[in-house]
Amino acid sequence: MNIIAASIKKYWLYIVICLLVGCINLCYLLGYKVPAFFTLEILAGVLLLYLLFFKKKLLFYALIFLIPVSVPIGIGGGSNLSFPSEFIVFLLGIFIMGRAFTGTSISRDLLFHPITIILCADLCWMLICSFYSTIPLYSYKRAFIRLIYLAVFYFFAAELFKNKKNIPLAFIIYGIGMIIPVISSIAFHARYNFIPAAAYKMTVPFFNDHTIYGAVLAFLAPVLVIIAAYQTRNGKGKTLKILLWSLTAVIIVGLILSFSRAAWLSILITLIFAALIWFRTKFSTFLIGTSLLALIIFLNFDSLTEMARRNDSKSNARDLSEHVESVSNIQTDASNMERINRWKCALRMFADRPIVGFGPGTYQYNYGLYQVRSEMTRISTVTGNRGHAHSEYLTYLSEMGFFGFIIFLAQLFFAVYTGMKIIYKSRDRYTQALATGLLLALFTIYIHSIFNAFLDIDKMAMLAFGALAGLVILDISYKKELSATTVDYDISPNNERL
To answer: Which of 18, 34, 182, 385 is 20 to 30 A from residue 356's alpha carbon, by CA?
Structure first.
Protein backbone atom coordinates (compact mmCIF):
# COMPACT_ATOMS: atom_id res chain seq x y z
CA MET A 1 0.00 0.00 0.00
CA ASN A 2 2.86 2.36 0.81
CA ILE A 3 4.33 1.74 -2.64
CA ILE A 4 0.97 2.51 -4.32
CA ALA A 5 0.51 5.67 -2.27
CA ALA A 6 4.04 6.82 -3.12
CA SER A 7 3.45 6.17 -6.82
CA ILE A 8 0.17 8.10 -6.80
CA LYS A 9 1.85 11.02 -5.03
CA LYS A 10 4.70 11.06 -7.55
CA TYR A 11 2.63 10.63 -10.72
CA TRP A 12 -0.64 12.30 -9.70
CA LEU A 13 -0.56 14.80 -12.55
CA TYR A 14 -0.11 12.10 -15.19
CA ILE A 15 -2.98 10.13 -13.63
CA VAL A 16 -5.26 13.20 -13.68
CA ILE A 17 -4.45 13.90 -17.34
CA CYS A 18 -5.16 10.30 -18.37
CA LEU A 19 -8.42 10.17 -16.42
CA LEU A 20 -9.56 13.53 -17.81
CA VAL A 21 -8.79 12.62 -21.41
CA GLY A 22 -10.44 9.23 -20.95
CA CYS A 23 -13.60 10.76 -19.44
CA ILE A 24 -13.87 13.36 -22.22
CA ASN A 25 -13.56 10.67 -24.89
CA LEU A 26 -16.09 8.46 -23.10
CA CYS A 27 -18.60 11.30 -22.76
CA TYR A 28 -18.11 12.18 -26.40
CA LEU A 29 -18.70 8.59 -27.52
CA LEU A 30 -21.78 8.23 -25.32
CA GLY A 31 -23.16 11.60 -26.42
CA TYR A 32 -23.18 13.22 -22.97
CA LYS A 33 -22.73 16.78 -24.18
CA VAL A 34 -24.35 18.63 -21.24
CA PRO A 35 -23.46 19.04 -18.49
CA ALA A 36 -20.78 16.37 -18.14
CA PHE A 37 -18.99 17.03 -21.40
CA PHE A 38 -19.05 20.80 -20.92
CA THR A 39 -17.78 20.45 -17.35
CA LEU A 40 -14.93 18.20 -18.40
CA GLU A 41 -13.95 20.64 -21.12
CA ILE A 42 -13.69 23.39 -18.52
CA LEU A 43 -11.53 21.14 -16.33
CA ALA A 44 -9.34 20.36 -19.35
CA GLY A 45 -8.93 24.09 -19.98
CA VAL A 46 -7.94 24.73 -16.36
CA LEU A 47 -5.44 21.86 -16.51
CA LEU A 48 -4.03 23.23 -19.77
CA LEU A 49 -3.44 26.64 -18.18
CA TYR A 50 -1.80 25.00 -15.17
CA LEU A 51 0.56 23.04 -17.41
CA LEU A 52 1.28 26.15 -19.49
CA PHE A 53 2.44 28.18 -16.51
CA PHE A 54 3.95 25.53 -14.25
CA LYS A 55 4.66 22.35 -16.24
CA LYS A 56 5.66 23.43 -19.74
CA LYS A 57 7.89 20.39 -20.25
CA LEU A 58 5.01 18.03 -19.49
CA LEU A 59 2.72 20.09 -21.74
CA PHE A 60 5.25 19.77 -24.56
CA TYR A 61 5.35 15.99 -24.22
CA ALA A 62 1.55 15.85 -24.04
CA LEU A 63 1.45 17.92 -27.22
CA ILE A 64 3.81 15.52 -28.99
CA PHE A 65 1.59 12.59 -28.08
CA LEU A 66 -1.59 14.43 -29.16
CA ILE A 67 -0.30 15.61 -32.56
CA PRO A 68 -0.78 12.30 -34.42
CA VAL A 69 -4.22 11.67 -32.83
CA SER A 70 -5.59 15.18 -33.34
CA VAL A 71 -8.47 15.56 -35.79
CA PRO A 72 -9.57 18.51 -37.96
CA ILE A 73 -12.51 20.63 -36.82
CA GLY A 74 -14.13 23.48 -38.72
CA ILE A 75 -13.52 26.97 -37.32
CA GLY A 76 -15.50 28.94 -39.90
CA GLY A 77 -14.64 30.53 -43.22
CA GLY A 78 -13.73 27.18 -44.72
CA SER A 79 -10.73 26.80 -42.39
CA ASN A 80 -9.91 23.78 -40.23
CA LEU A 81 -8.01 23.44 -36.97
CA SER A 82 -6.22 20.24 -35.98
CA PHE A 83 -7.62 19.83 -32.49
CA PRO A 84 -6.29 19.83 -29.85
CA SER A 85 -2.68 19.93 -31.12
CA GLU A 86 -2.77 23.20 -33.07
CA PHE A 87 -4.68 24.89 -30.25
CA ILE A 88 -1.98 23.86 -27.76
CA VAL A 89 0.81 24.81 -30.18
CA PHE A 90 -0.72 28.28 -30.53
CA LEU A 91 -0.97 28.80 -26.77
CA LEU A 92 2.49 27.42 -26.06
CA GLY A 93 4.02 29.41 -28.92
CA ILE A 94 2.49 32.70 -27.77
CA PHE A 95 3.64 31.99 -24.21
CA ILE A 96 7.22 31.19 -25.34
CA MET A 97 7.45 34.32 -27.51
CA GLY A 98 6.02 36.43 -24.68
CA ARG A 99 8.63 34.98 -22.34
CA ALA A 100 11.37 35.86 -24.86
CA PHE A 101 10.20 39.48 -24.96
CA THR A 102 10.36 39.67 -21.17
CA GLY A 103 14.07 38.95 -21.13
CA THR A 104 14.44 35.15 -21.25
CA SER A 105 17.70 34.63 -23.12
CA ILE A 106 18.50 32.08 -25.80
CA SER A 107 21.82 30.28 -25.70
CA ARG A 108 24.35 32.10 -27.87
CA ASP A 109 25.57 28.80 -29.30
CA LEU A 110 22.01 27.95 -30.36
CA LEU A 111 21.13 31.42 -31.64
CA PHE A 112 24.21 31.74 -33.84
CA HIS A 113 24.34 28.18 -35.08
CA PRO A 114 24.23 28.08 -38.92
CA ILE A 115 21.00 26.05 -38.95
CA THR A 116 19.29 28.54 -36.63
CA ILE A 117 20.47 31.43 -38.80
CA ILE A 118 19.10 29.71 -41.92
CA LEU A 119 15.73 29.00 -40.27
CA CYS A 120 15.47 32.65 -39.17
CA ALA A 121 16.51 33.83 -42.65
CA ASP A 122 13.77 31.62 -44.09
CA LEU A 123 11.20 33.24 -41.79
CA CYS A 124 12.42 36.76 -42.61
CA TRP A 125 12.24 36.04 -46.34
CA MET A 126 8.71 34.68 -45.88
CA LEU A 127 7.72 38.02 -44.34
CA ILE A 128 9.32 39.96 -47.21
CA CYS A 129 7.59 37.78 -49.80
CA SER A 130 4.31 38.19 -47.90
CA PHE A 131 4.54 41.95 -48.40
CA TYR A 132 4.62 41.42 -52.19
CA SER A 133 2.19 38.49 -52.11
CA THR A 134 -0.80 38.15 -54.43
CA ILE A 135 -2.85 37.36 -51.29
CA PRO A 136 -1.00 39.07 -48.41
CA LEU A 137 -3.41 37.93 -45.69
CA TYR A 138 -2.83 34.25 -46.49
CA SER A 139 0.93 34.76 -46.72
CA TYR A 140 1.21 36.56 -43.38
CA LYS A 141 -0.87 33.79 -41.86
CA ARG A 142 1.57 31.19 -43.24
CA ALA A 143 4.54 33.19 -41.91
CA PHE A 144 2.90 33.44 -38.47
CA ILE A 145 2.32 29.68 -38.40
CA ARG A 146 5.98 29.11 -39.25
CA LEU A 147 6.99 31.49 -36.42
CA ILE A 148 4.85 29.52 -33.95
CA TYR A 149 6.30 26.21 -35.14
CA LEU A 150 9.87 27.49 -34.79
CA ALA A 151 9.17 28.85 -31.30
CA VAL A 152 7.70 25.55 -30.06
CA PHE A 153 9.27 22.77 -32.11
CA TYR A 154 12.74 24.29 -32.56
CA PHE A 155 13.67 26.77 -29.83
CA PHE A 156 11.66 25.28 -26.97
CA ALA A 157 12.56 21.75 -28.06
CA ALA A 158 16.24 22.73 -28.16
CA GLU A 159 15.94 23.97 -24.59
CA LEU A 160 14.63 20.57 -23.49
CA PHE A 161 17.11 18.66 -25.65
CA LYS A 162 20.05 20.10 -23.70
CA ASN A 163 19.41 17.00 -21.63
CA LYS A 164 20.15 14.49 -24.38
CA LYS A 165 17.86 11.80 -23.00
CA ASN A 166 14.93 14.03 -24.01
CA ILE A 167 15.82 13.73 -27.71
CA PRO A 168 14.89 10.04 -28.15
CA LEU A 169 12.07 10.42 -25.62
CA ALA A 170 10.33 13.01 -27.81
CA PHE A 171 10.29 10.73 -30.86
CA ILE A 172 9.31 7.69 -28.81
CA ILE A 173 6.30 9.61 -27.43
CA TYR A 174 5.32 10.64 -30.97
CA GLY A 175 5.64 7.01 -32.06
CA ILE A 176 3.37 5.92 -29.20
CA GLY A 177 0.82 8.50 -30.33
CA MET A 178 0.99 7.00 -33.83
CA ILE A 179 -0.17 3.58 -32.59
CA ILE A 180 -3.82 4.65 -32.65
CA PRO A 181 -3.78 5.99 -36.26
CA VAL A 182 -1.83 2.92 -37.42
CA ILE A 183 -4.29 0.46 -35.86
CA SER A 184 -7.26 2.48 -37.13
CA SER A 185 -5.83 2.65 -40.67
CA ILE A 186 -4.96 -1.05 -40.83
CA ALA A 187 -8.39 -2.04 -39.50
CA PHE A 188 -10.12 0.14 -42.10
CA HIS A 189 -7.89 -1.13 -44.90
CA ALA A 190 -8.40 -4.75 -43.87
CA ARG A 191 -12.13 -4.41 -44.60
CA TYR A 192 -11.17 -3.81 -48.24
CA ASN A 193 -8.61 -6.64 -48.39
CA PHE A 194 -5.73 -4.12 -48.41
CA ILE A 195 -6.30 -3.06 -51.99
CA PRO A 196 -4.24 0.08 -52.78
CA ALA A 197 -7.34 1.89 -54.09
CA ALA A 198 -8.74 2.02 -50.55
CA ALA A 199 -5.55 3.45 -49.03
CA TYR A 200 -6.50 7.06 -49.73
CA LYS A 201 -9.27 7.18 -47.12
CA MET A 202 -7.97 4.74 -44.52
CA THR A 203 -6.13 7.37 -42.45
CA VAL A 204 -9.18 9.60 -41.84
CA PRO A 205 -9.83 11.31 -39.43
CA PHE A 206 -6.29 11.47 -38.04
CA PHE A 207 -4.57 12.25 -41.36
CA ASN A 208 -6.10 13.86 -44.43
CA ASP A 209 -4.62 11.23 -46.73
CA HIS A 210 -2.14 8.39 -46.77
CA THR A 211 0.74 10.49 -48.16
CA ILE A 212 1.32 12.61 -45.04
CA TYR A 213 0.64 9.48 -42.96
CA GLY A 214 3.29 7.56 -44.91
CA ALA A 215 5.74 10.47 -44.66
CA VAL A 216 5.41 10.55 -40.86
CA LEU A 217 5.92 6.78 -40.58
CA ALA A 218 8.92 6.94 -42.92
CA PHE A 219 10.40 9.68 -40.73
CA LEU A 220 9.88 7.75 -37.51
CA ALA A 221 11.12 4.38 -38.78
CA PRO A 222 14.89 5.08 -38.96
CA VAL A 223 15.12 7.08 -35.74
CA LEU A 224 13.20 4.43 -33.77
CA VAL A 225 15.27 1.62 -35.29
CA ILE A 226 18.47 3.39 -34.23
CA ILE A 227 17.15 4.05 -30.71
CA ALA A 228 16.00 0.46 -30.29
CA ALA A 229 19.25 -0.94 -31.72
CA TYR A 230 21.39 1.23 -29.45
CA GLN A 231 19.35 0.27 -26.39
CA THR A 232 19.65 -3.42 -27.34
CA ARG A 233 23.41 -3.19 -27.70
CA ASN A 234 24.34 -0.83 -24.87
CA GLY A 235 21.33 -0.33 -22.60
CA LYS A 236 19.81 -2.12 -19.66
CA GLY A 237 16.28 -3.25 -19.08
CA LYS A 238 14.86 -6.16 -21.06
CA THR A 239 11.30 -4.84 -20.82
CA LEU A 240 12.28 -1.49 -22.32
CA LYS A 241 14.04 -3.20 -25.22
CA ILE A 242 10.95 -5.30 -25.96
CA LEU A 243 8.70 -2.26 -25.84
CA LEU A 244 10.99 -0.25 -28.13
CA TRP A 245 11.19 -3.01 -30.73
CA SER A 246 7.44 -3.58 -30.50
CA LEU A 247 6.80 0.12 -31.15
CA THR A 248 9.27 0.07 -34.02
CA ALA A 249 7.56 -2.97 -35.52
CA VAL A 250 4.15 -1.25 -35.39
CA ILE A 251 5.59 1.79 -37.20
CA ILE A 252 7.28 -0.33 -39.89
CA VAL A 253 4.15 -2.43 -40.49
CA GLY A 254 2.12 0.77 -40.75
CA LEU A 255 4.66 2.12 -43.25
CA ILE A 256 4.50 -1.00 -45.41
CA LEU A 257 0.70 -0.95 -45.41
CA SER A 258 0.47 2.81 -45.98
CA PHE A 259 0.74 2.24 -49.76
CA SER A 260 2.50 5.60 -50.01
CA ARG A 261 4.92 5.21 -52.87
CA ALA A 262 6.78 8.40 -51.99
CA ALA A 263 7.30 7.10 -48.45
CA TRP A 264 8.59 3.77 -49.72
CA LEU A 265 10.93 5.52 -52.14
CA SER A 266 12.21 7.86 -49.43
CA ILE A 267 13.08 4.88 -47.24
CA LEU A 268 14.84 3.13 -50.14
CA ILE A 269 16.99 6.17 -50.95
CA THR A 270 17.65 6.76 -47.24
CA LEU A 271 19.01 3.21 -46.98
CA ILE A 272 21.44 4.07 -49.79
CA PHE A 273 22.40 7.24 -47.92
CA ALA A 274 22.89 5.17 -44.75
CA ALA A 275 25.31 2.95 -46.70
CA LEU A 276 27.26 6.04 -47.75
CA ILE A 277 27.53 7.05 -44.10
CA TRP A 278 28.60 3.52 -43.16
CA PHE A 279 31.48 3.77 -45.65
CA ARG A 280 32.37 7.23 -44.33
CA THR A 281 31.66 9.09 -47.55
CA LYS A 282 32.84 12.69 -47.40
CA PHE A 283 30.22 15.43 -47.38
CA SER A 284 31.91 17.08 -50.38
CA THR A 285 31.47 13.87 -52.36
CA PHE A 286 27.82 13.68 -51.35
CA LEU A 287 27.31 17.33 -52.32
CA ILE A 288 28.92 16.95 -55.74
CA GLY A 289 27.03 13.73 -56.48
CA THR A 290 23.68 15.17 -55.43
CA SER A 291 24.25 18.34 -57.45
CA LEU A 292 25.17 16.39 -60.58
CA LEU A 293 22.10 14.14 -60.23
CA ALA A 294 19.81 17.15 -59.77
CA LEU A 295 21.37 18.85 -62.81
CA ILE A 296 20.86 15.75 -65.00
CA ILE A 297 17.20 15.52 -63.96
CA PHE A 298 16.66 19.23 -64.56
CA LEU A 299 18.24 19.16 -68.01
CA ASN A 300 16.14 16.14 -69.02
CA PHE A 301 12.91 17.19 -67.31
CA ASP A 302 11.04 17.96 -70.55
CA SER A 303 12.07 14.61 -72.06
CA LEU A 304 10.89 12.73 -68.97
CA THR A 305 7.51 14.45 -68.95
CA GLU A 306 7.06 13.92 -72.68
CA MET A 307 7.58 10.19 -72.15
CA ALA A 308 4.98 10.28 -69.40
CA ARG A 309 2.26 11.68 -71.63
CA ARG A 310 2.47 8.74 -74.02
CA ASN A 311 1.34 6.18 -71.46
CA ASP A 312 -1.97 5.22 -69.89
CA SER A 313 -2.61 5.49 -66.17
CA LYS A 314 -2.69 2.57 -63.84
CA SER A 315 -2.90 4.54 -60.62
CA ASN A 316 -4.75 2.74 -57.83
CA ALA A 317 -3.90 -0.61 -59.38
CA ARG A 318 -5.46 -3.48 -57.48
CA ASP A 319 -2.40 -5.65 -57.94
CA LEU A 320 0.29 -4.86 -55.37
CA SER A 321 3.14 -5.62 -57.77
CA GLU A 322 1.77 -3.04 -60.21
CA HIS A 323 1.49 -0.50 -57.41
CA VAL A 324 5.11 -1.04 -56.42
CA GLU A 325 6.19 -0.86 -60.06
CA SER A 326 4.59 2.57 -60.41
CA VAL A 327 7.11 3.94 -57.91
CA SER A 328 9.82 3.69 -60.55
CA ASN A 329 7.53 3.82 -63.57
CA ILE A 330 6.30 7.39 -63.48
CA GLN A 331 5.07 7.17 -67.06
CA THR A 332 2.17 4.90 -66.20
CA ASP A 333 0.69 6.56 -63.13
CA ALA A 334 -2.05 9.21 -63.33
CA SER A 335 -1.29 10.67 -59.92
CA ASN A 336 2.34 11.11 -60.95
CA MET A 337 1.13 12.74 -64.17
CA GLU A 338 -0.82 15.24 -62.10
CA ARG A 339 2.32 15.91 -60.09
CA ILE A 340 4.11 16.77 -63.31
CA ASN A 341 1.26 19.11 -64.20
CA ARG A 342 1.64 20.87 -60.82
CA TRP A 343 5.43 20.95 -61.13
CA LYS A 344 5.27 22.60 -64.55
CA CYS A 345 2.77 25.15 -63.24
CA ALA A 346 5.18 25.96 -60.41
CA LEU A 347 8.05 26.47 -62.85
CA ARG A 348 5.94 28.80 -65.00
CA MET A 349 4.91 30.73 -61.90
CA PHE A 350 8.58 31.04 -60.93
CA ALA A 351 9.42 32.33 -64.40
CA ASP A 352 6.79 35.06 -63.97
CA ARG A 353 7.88 36.14 -60.48
CA PRO A 354 11.43 34.83 -59.93
CA ILE A 355 12.45 37.12 -57.05
CA VAL A 356 9.66 37.13 -54.44
CA GLY A 357 7.29 34.57 -55.95
CA PHE A 358 3.52 34.69 -55.52
CA GLY A 359 3.68 34.70 -51.73
CA PRO A 360 3.74 31.93 -49.08
CA GLY A 361 0.63 29.78 -49.11
CA THR A 362 -0.72 31.11 -52.42
CA TYR A 363 0.25 28.42 -54.94
CA GLN A 364 -3.13 26.69 -54.90
CA TYR A 365 -4.91 29.96 -55.65
CA ASN A 366 -2.71 30.86 -58.63
CA TYR A 367 -1.58 27.74 -60.44
CA GLY A 368 -4.85 27.32 -62.37
CA LEU A 369 -3.88 30.13 -64.74
CA TYR A 370 -0.64 28.33 -65.58
CA GLN A 371 -2.11 24.97 -66.56
CA VAL A 372 -1.80 23.79 -70.15
CA ARG A 373 -4.77 21.72 -71.28
CA SER A 374 -2.59 19.09 -72.95
CA GLU A 375 -0.82 18.48 -69.62
CA MET A 376 -3.95 18.21 -67.49
CA THR A 377 -5.10 14.78 -66.30
CA ARG A 378 -8.42 13.22 -65.38
CA ILE A 379 -7.86 14.32 -61.78
CA SER A 380 -6.99 17.94 -62.63
CA THR A 381 -9.38 20.77 -61.82
CA VAL A 382 -10.33 23.16 -64.59
CA THR A 383 -9.84 26.19 -62.39
CA GLY A 384 -6.80 24.71 -60.70
CA ASN A 385 -7.87 25.67 -57.19
CA ARG A 386 -7.11 22.48 -55.27
CA GLY A 387 -3.95 21.31 -53.56
CA HIS A 388 -0.30 22.29 -53.50
CA ALA A 389 2.65 21.98 -55.86
CA HIS A 390 3.37 18.40 -54.72
CA SER A 391 6.97 19.43 -54.06
CA GLU A 392 8.47 21.45 -51.22
CA TYR A 393 11.28 22.59 -53.52
CA LEU A 394 8.97 23.86 -56.26
CA THR A 395 6.63 25.35 -53.68
CA TYR A 396 9.52 27.49 -52.48
CA LEU A 397 10.36 28.44 -56.07
CA SER A 398 6.82 29.47 -56.98
CA GLU A 399 5.84 31.09 -53.67
CA MET A 400 9.14 32.62 -52.45
CA GLY A 401 11.26 32.87 -55.57
CA PHE A 402 14.89 31.98 -56.15
CA PHE A 403 16.23 33.23 -52.82
CA GLY A 404 13.61 31.29 -50.86
CA PHE A 405 14.57 28.17 -52.80
CA ILE A 406 18.28 28.69 -52.04
CA ILE A 407 17.54 29.18 -48.34
CA PHE A 408 15.64 25.89 -48.25
CA LEU A 409 18.50 24.09 -50.01
CA ALA A 410 20.92 25.64 -47.52
CA GLN A 411 18.82 24.25 -44.67
CA LEU A 412 18.96 20.79 -46.25
CA PHE A 413 22.70 20.74 -46.89
CA PHE A 414 23.65 22.25 -43.52
CA ALA A 415 21.51 19.63 -41.79
CA VAL A 416 23.26 16.84 -43.70
CA TYR A 417 26.69 18.43 -43.14
CA THR A 418 26.05 18.85 -39.42
CA GLY A 419 24.79 15.30 -39.02
CA MET A 420 27.68 13.74 -40.94
CA LYS A 421 30.21 15.83 -38.99
CA ILE A 422 28.84 14.63 -35.65
CA ILE A 423 28.71 11.00 -36.78
CA TYR A 424 32.28 11.04 -38.09
CA LYS A 425 33.96 13.14 -35.39
CA SER A 426 32.12 12.55 -32.12
CA ARG A 427 33.80 10.11 -29.74
CA ASP A 428 30.60 9.42 -27.85
CA ARG A 429 28.69 6.43 -29.23
CA TYR A 430 25.39 7.71 -27.83
CA THR A 431 25.82 11.06 -29.59
CA GLN A 432 26.76 9.25 -32.80
CA ALA A 433 23.69 7.01 -32.58
CA LEU A 434 21.29 9.92 -31.99
CA ALA A 435 22.85 11.95 -34.80
CA THR A 436 22.54 8.99 -37.17
CA GLY A 437 18.87 8.45 -36.32
CA LEU A 438 17.99 12.15 -36.66
CA LEU A 439 19.92 12.59 -39.91
CA LEU A 440 18.37 9.53 -41.56
CA ALA A 441 14.91 10.66 -40.42
CA LEU A 442 15.47 14.14 -41.85
CA PHE A 443 16.77 12.62 -45.07
CA THR A 444 13.47 10.78 -45.58
CA ILE A 445 11.51 14.04 -45.52
CA TYR A 446 14.03 15.78 -47.80
CA ILE A 447 13.49 13.00 -50.33
CA HIS A 448 9.74 12.97 -49.70
CA SER A 449 9.71 16.75 -50.28
CA ILE A 450 10.43 16.11 -53.95
CA PHE A 451 6.91 14.71 -54.24
CA ASN A 452 4.95 16.52 -51.51
CA ALA A 453 5.00 19.61 -49.27
CA PHE A 454 4.23 18.90 -45.61
CA LEU A 455 6.49 21.18 -43.54
CA ASP A 456 3.65 23.59 -42.76
CA ILE A 457 1.52 20.81 -41.26
CA ASP A 458 1.96 20.32 -37.51
CA LYS A 459 2.16 16.52 -37.86
CA MET A 460 5.37 16.91 -39.86
CA ALA A 461 6.61 20.26 -38.52
CA MET A 462 7.19 18.81 -35.05
CA LEU A 463 9.30 15.98 -36.46
CA ALA A 464 11.33 18.06 -38.92
CA PHE A 465 12.06 21.09 -36.72
CA GLY A 466 12.45 18.89 -33.63
CA ALA A 467 15.05 16.77 -35.43
CA LEU A 468 16.90 19.91 -36.52
CA ALA A 469 16.87 21.14 -32.92
CA GLY A 470 18.27 17.78 -31.80
CA LEU A 471 21.07 17.92 -34.37
CA VAL A 472 22.00 21.46 -33.36
CA ILE A 473 22.17 20.53 -29.66
CA LEU A 474 24.29 17.47 -30.48
CA ASP A 475 26.56 19.63 -32.63
CA ILE A 476 27.00 22.14 -29.81
CA SER A 477 27.75 19.44 -27.26
CA TYR A 478 29.91 17.03 -29.26
CA LYS A 479 32.91 19.38 -29.36
CA LYS A 480 32.96 19.39 -25.58
CA GLU A 481 33.07 15.58 -25.66
CA LEU A 482 36.04 15.28 -28.01
CA SER A 483 38.50 15.34 -25.16
CA ALA A 484 36.39 13.11 -22.91
CA THR A 485 36.44 9.33 -22.79
CA THR A 486 33.66 7.40 -24.50
CA VAL A 487 30.59 7.11 -22.28
CA ASP A 488 27.87 4.48 -22.59
CA TYR A 489 24.36 5.85 -22.30
CA ASP A 490 21.24 3.95 -21.45
CA ILE A 491 17.76 5.31 -22.09
CA SER A 492 16.34 3.29 -19.22
CA PRO A 493 14.29 5.43 -16.82
CA ASN A 494 16.53 4.54 -13.85
CA ASN A 495 19.77 5.56 -15.57
CA GLU A 496 20.78 8.95 -14.19
CA ARG A 497 23.58 9.53 -16.68
CA LEU A 498 20.94 10.57 -19.17
So the answer is: 385
